[in-house]
Amino acid sequence: MANLMIQVPTVAEPPANLSGSRLIQLRRAERRTAPRRSPTAVDEGLDRAEELVLCPLEDSPLPLWELGWDEAESASWLAEILGPGLVSLVARGLVEVRRFDGWPAEWDHGTLVAGDELLRESGRAEAWRDDGGHRVLAAHITRAGVRVL
User: Fold this and answer.
1) CB of 122 within 8 A of CB of 87?
2) Is 137 helix (H, G, I), strand (E, B) or coil?
3) Do the Cβ atoms of 53 and 89 come closer than 8 Å?
4) How far apart are CA 35 and CA 58, in angstroms?
5) Judging by beta carbons within 10 Å of its beta carbon (0-12, 13-18, 19+), is residue 5 exposed, middle or buried?
6) 87: left (phi over 0), alpha (psi -120 to 50) or beta
7) Most buried of 75, 87, 110, 118 (most Cβ within 10 A)?
8) pTM for this structure?
9) What is the DSSP code string of 60-114?
10) pLDDT digit string (tens) for 84-118?
């Protein structure tokens, strides 16, 4: 499988005209989009999208909308950026994805989603939105994934 390189925008210096609460939101978004890079993650060759998906899963399982960040342009943008990382992590055995009728839910009650089905589902903007109008995809780190963190 080819290693996809995805560039995720970051903010070096916030504009001077930001209010206090907006600046706090921006800093939180920066922290969420800049996961820590463990030596193991670097050794495993994780790309940026894979890191952005894997690192928040330390406290998994999480629905896909919780893997995004507030400053993302849109759910479509998240699907485009994070979807390939999610599919790659599942293919490598580092993450498992299941479908649920609602969230929160018991992990064992979900239906496993992988391969072409995951590629199709994770590429849809709805999968990355918390609007309650669709089934929920949730991700859970595997033991192999924990070792990478």
Assistant:
1) yes
2) strand
3) yes
4) 11
5) exposed
6) alpha
7) 87
8) 0.70
9) --EEGGGTS-TT-S-HHHHHHHHHHHHHHHHHTTSEEEEEESSSS--GGGSEEE-
10) 999 999 999 999 999 999 999 999 999 999 999 99
